[in-house]
Amino acid sequence: xxxxxxxxxxxxxxxxxxxxxxxxxxxxxxxxxxxxxxxxxxxxxxxxxxxxxxxxxxxxxxxxxxxxxxxxxxxxxxxxxxxxxxxxxxxxxxxxxxxxxxxxxxxxxxxxxxxxxxxxxxxxxxxxxxxxxxxxxxxxxxxxxxxxxxxxxxxxxx
Length: 158
Ligand SMILES: [Zn+2]
Ligand SMILES: [Zn+2]
Prior knowledge:
Blueprint: H1 4-16, H2 23-34, E1 39-40, H3 41-50, H4 57-69, E2 73-76, E3 84-87, E4 95-99, E5 105-108, H5 111-123, E6 134-137
Parallel strand pairs: 4-6
Antiparallel strand pairs: 1-3, 2-3, 4-5
Bound molecules: zinc ion (2 copies).
One zinc ion (ZN) binds at residues 38, 86, 94, 96, 107.
């Protein structure tokens, strides 16, 4: 269940941007705020269907987009994977390491990353709006990794 603050924030956003405020959107808001980890729109849609909640798939997709726009969710595009969402509201800034074989996602915090980018932005007279850091990896222990495949490092950077 979404807290009152979260509901208010969402309602204000919908009003400001002239989006309809519907009961269906509140059901999706609650389900998304209760969801664990990094979920995609279909996972949430099917979970809600299993819970006998009447929502359309298109509205789930649209509502998750709106929740990202108003800062309640973070939207991730992990290499080749479907778009995933996670709760942003009330969470610390964190980053992700993704196993390219089993899609296991590890989260970590790194305040020094934020410090560094603030410094570089400042030095170049830029204001940071958003940032992301994703590390793609493979599990070291083959037997603990579902779908283990050898991955060769790509030539990253210049
Ligand atoms: Zn995360
Ligand atoms: Zn793995």
